[in-house]
Amino acid sequence: MTSAKDIVKSLTPPLLWHAARKLKPKSDVHPAYGFEGPYPSWEAAASIADGWDAPSILDKTLDAALKVRDGLVAFEMDGVPRDRIIYSPTILAFLLLVLSRQKSTLNIIDFGGGLGSNYIQNHKLLRHLRATSVYWGVVEQEMLATLGKQHFQTEELKFFPTIDDALSAAPQCDAVIFTGSLQYIAEPHALLDRIVNADVKIIAMDRLLVSPSATDGAFVQRPDPALFYPATYPVWCFAKEKFIERLTARGFTLVEYFTFDPAHPFDDCGMIFSK
């Protein structure tokens, strides 16, 4: 029998995402963009950050997603329009593993999926799979979830403001992926516990910020305002080994770890766990 790890390793993605990021402690220096910290707590970092509800983020995200919907650009990520789709190896491997379990259906929850960018990114491939049905539930901030329902929701693509709403709407869903989102939650481990307790069988993280530190660290992130938007928000950098240990202690196996810069101590990585 082919194992879950063999299934994932059989996938050769067409392109790897490479995130070149540096985290350096900065107490009194405010960089044009990058990471500032670590701070003593999430609350301390959040107290000086704008947060994800900054109008500049919402406006740019909606504008880019509408351009994709209307066929003006091929793809958008983090509010940046792209002229070609950039595939994530973690998401592709996650979809392959879920389909190997669910057989005739693809039924997943995408936590932090924006206005459906991950669904749209992979829709071209999904159309050619033998799955008889696709259900892609996106969990986002309430404002984004409302915009998603207004402009992008279909029979396949649904939007929810909370993980509980998404799980209630899709009781048969046993696969959840966090796409560049878990590190921006104030209590990420409590959220993971909620998902584990819902009997989810496959949990994946794409673009998860980790380090070899013994403890999680709270930072303030400043994206490049010229490329993204002028905003700041608190972010966790997870202690990699402890993060893995928490899920393996709950009965999960680490199927694969996707690293984009093995030589760099701070990694924007992907992980897939299954049980």
Written description of the protein model:
- 31% of the residues lie in helices and 26% in strands.
- With 275 residues, it is α/β, with parallel strands linked by helices.
- The chain has one domain: Rossmann fold.
- Strands 1, 4, 5, 6, 7, 8, 9, 10, 11 and 12 form a 10-stranded mixed sheet that branches.
- The longest helix has 15 residues, at 55-69.
- It is globular.
- The two termini are 16 Å apart.
Instruction: Give the integer mean of the pLDDT values.
Output: 83
Number of strands: 12
Name the helicity range: 25-40%
CATH fold field value: Rossmann fold
In whole angstroms, the N-to-C terminal distance is 16 Å
Strand content: 25-35%
Number of discrete helical segments:
9
CATH domain class name = Alpha Beta
Helix-strand string: HEHHEEHEHEHEHEHEEEHEE
Structural class: alpha/beta
Shape: globular
In a nutshell, what does this entry contain?
Helices cover 31% and strands 26% of the residues.
Key phrases:
9 helices, alpha/beta, Rossmann fold, globular, about 280 residues, two-stranded antiparallel ribbon, 10-stranded mixed β-sheet
What's the structural blueprint in terms of helices and strands?
Layout lengths: L3 H6 L24 E6 L2 H5 L8 H15 L5 E3 L2 E3 L6 H14 L2 E7 L5 H10 L6 E7 L2 H10 L5 E4 L2 H7 L5 E5 L8 H10 L4 E10 L5 E6 L10 E7 H9 L4 E6 L8 E8 L1
Parallel strand pairs: 4-5, 4-7, 5-6, 7-8, 8-10
Antiparallel strand pairs: 1-9, 2-3, 8-12, 9-10, 11-12
